[in-house]
Amino acid sequence: MNSGLDDTLSIVIAAAGDGARLGLGPKALLPLGGRMLLEAVCTKARRIAGEVMVAAPASRMAEWQRHATGCAVIAGGESFLRTTASLAQAASRRKLLVWSVAAPFVSEPVLRRVAAGVPEGGVCAVLQPSDVPLAAMQDGAVREFLPRDAVMAVQGPQAYDRAALLDLIARATDADWQQQSFLQVALRHGQPVATVMGEKTNFKITTPDDWRLAQYLKDLL
């Protein structure tokens, strides 16, 4: 495994959500493995990047700063994309790795792999092969079955050439701001997406079932 800081990289962590779907309060402050998720993610990020920034709820920035030692804290936006835009504009390094505090289990090798996979002027995604076929749905009915070798799950984090991301932000349309990530925006604007392989334990904590699974995997933090 590679080691050391990448001084060309900013890791920016979206941690401004209220955790409404999970129903346990802000995910950033959930305790797991003896520390809060925000602390665990920040600790891992600081081992990798020369700059680490966190987006916090505007009304609770001082509280978030106490748990994000060594990281700059800014106010997040009203959506993941708006928060990503604010972080990208505040960051200073050439490459940008966009991570969510809700996905704390991504390993250091994957973080380094996706950061290294960013082409000049481009973007890079983490993908995980599917073990089973997937059903494409339309109006509540199965439209077709997609073979497992034709689909992959998109994981986090995402990595960008910062200048390219800032250009996407500047050109974003109303429809672009409705997407879930700037990976989708990049594709909408005809920009290819490089990829690296992820890992099965890299998942986003969204539902109560996810949180129960997280309890079993807490030693991976």
Automatic annotation (TrEMBL):
Keywords: Nucleotidyltransferase, Transferase. InterPro entries: IspD/TarI, IspD/TarI_cytidylyltransf_bact, Nucleotide-diphossugar_trans. One of its GO terms (molecular function) is 2-C-methyl-D-erythritol 4-phosphate cytidylyltransferase activity. The keyword Transferase applies. Transmembrane segments: none annotated. It holds the Pfam family IspD. This is 2-C-methyl-D-erythritol 4-phosphate cytidylyltransferase. It comes from Andreprevotia lacus DSM 23236.
